[in-house]
């Protein structure tokens, strides 16, 4: 992100945190993914045409980070891996999401594609993010559909084949 991404926008009323949390998600080097600050997230939402509330940004960023950590744990369930994460394709629906939509299900609100290194072979994972029904003890609920992409070497995992790490 450009340096200005962590600076207040014109017309912004309240200051937002510029602190960035480190994740558990490797980036392909010795580093891990660093989540955007409240200010960066607010600026990105405004840039994409959303109307975020400055008062909600602490909760929005916490939910964003928790959902990404959950997605990473789901990928780790498929295999032991190291590799970079890529994402943010909210209008590019996966074939599975499109098929389910034709059957009457809602489309996901976001999609990420993460690339991992499986014994020297790049494997692409697709993560579809769906809103789930909120509960009293969980006012914000999501469902994650995490799987190797069909056009990737990852489909072999579905057959139970793994490499030794």
TrEMBL record:
GO terms assigned for molecular function: holocytochrome-c synthase activity; metal ion binding
What the entry lists under Pfam families is as follows: Cyto_heme_lyase
PROSITE patterns under this entry? CYTO_HEME_LYASE_1, CYTO_HEME_LYASE_2
Chain intervals for the UniProt region annotation (Disordered): 1-22
Q: Where in the cell is it found?
A: Mitochondrion inner membrane
- Chief location: mitochondrion
Catalysed reaction(s) here are: holo-[cytochrome c] = apo-[cytochrome c] + heme b
For this protein, what is the EC number?
4.4.1.17
PANTHER family, per the entry:
CYTOCHROME C1 HEME LYASE, HOLOCYTOCHROME C-TYPE SYNTHASE
What is the name of the protein in this document?
Answer: Holocytochrome c-type synthase
Species: Chlorella variabilis
